Amino acid sequence: MADELKLYTTPGSTFAFRVELALILKGINYKIVEENTKNKSVDLLKYNPVHKQVPVLVHNGNPISESLVIVEYIDDVWKGYPILPQDPYEKSVVRFWARFIDSTCIPAIFKVFGSNGAVQAVAKACEQLQVDHRYSTGACMEESRCGTRIAAYYVKLETI
Ligand SMILES: N[C@@H](CCC(=O)N[C@@H](CS)C(=O)NCC(=O)O)C(=O)O
Fold it and tell me: Which of 21, 37, 101, 119 is spaced 20 to 30 Å from 71 by Cα?
């Protein structure tokens, strides 16, 4: 029986886009279920009762939440086009930076969006992005650098 994959998303969600990118890289077919985050469906609340957020990937009826967890799930189930390195140490480095970006860079950038360019918010985002630029190394980090440069462009810290 073919796999049934449904991705609960909302327009413009960068977290859901991260999951779509993984599915596209692996060449996997999936259906999109578009959510209105101001009026969430019963299914979304059932599938992600803890955070009540998109993205949620439902694979043959099993829901998986949190974009980084979903990307790792996809990488574990479909072996073609590996996303994470196989070497345990290299894998831990990628996980470290992915969590760093989610826990520090993204919140700092979101604060800039809501701050009308307030100096303190811009300075904080700049500091977090520079940490990423300074310490992330290796080929697998190119993606992260590229992501942070695009983010820096959007918050007008850098020109591309
Ligand atoms: N840590 C979550 C963040 C997901 C997230 O922030 N989703 C937003 C859309 S981009 C959402 O569902 N917002 C609605 C809400 O929080 O009520 C992940 O990585 O999946």
Answer: 37
